[in-house]
Design goal:
- About 15% of the residues are buried.
- The chain is of the alpha+beta class.
- The protein has helices spanning about 5-30, 90; strands at about 35-40, 45-50, 55-60, 65-70, 75-80, 100-105, 110-115.
- The strands form 2 sheets. A 4-stranded antiparallel beta sheet has the order 2-1-7-6. It has a 3-stranded antiparallel beta sheet with strand order 3-4-5.
- The protein is extended, with a radius of gyration of 18 Å.
């Protein structure tokens, strides 16, 4: 008994190939654009951080001192500490590409990476999954 046919294998390979090509195209288009991180607290913009390379600092927002962010020298940012019970925000890791988003829902804080210059309707709004 066969579990798959040759055509099934071709379809799977085509899907994988299309996925890899899409990822390469996405990275080439959006990786060169300068970006900034925006931090929202209860749906209100409270902090904007330029993702400049060469700066390494740890900071928090005045609305919640228990949530700590880390800006890395490579131009990425992440949640470093949080008093939330599940720590999903910390497990999200470093964000550096336009469209990446992380959230600490118990503390009502959202961290998004957006283009440095003004946005338009054609810009990517969010990336889901990794």
């Amino acid at each position: 008994m066969k579990f798959f046919k040759k055509t099934d294998l071709l379809v799977v390979l085509a899907i994988v190939l299309i996925s890899i090509i899409s990822l390469v195209i996405y990275n080439n288009i959006f990786s060169d654009k300068p970006a900034k991180a925006v931090i929202y607290y209860k749906s209100e913009l409270v902090e904007t951080v330029a993702l400049n390379t060469g700066i390494d600092k740890t900071f928090s927002i005045s609305q919640n001192k228990h949530v700590v962010f880390h800006l890395y020298k490579d131009g990425s940012i992440s949640f470093e500490e949080s008093d939330c019970p599940d720590k999903v925000c910390i497990k999200a890791g470093k964000l550096n590409s336009i469209g990446e988003t992380s959230a600490c829902l118990p503390n009502e804080i959202i961290l998004k990476i957006v283009p440095l210059k003004n946005r338009n309707n054609d810009d990517l709004d969010m990336i889901v999954g990794k």
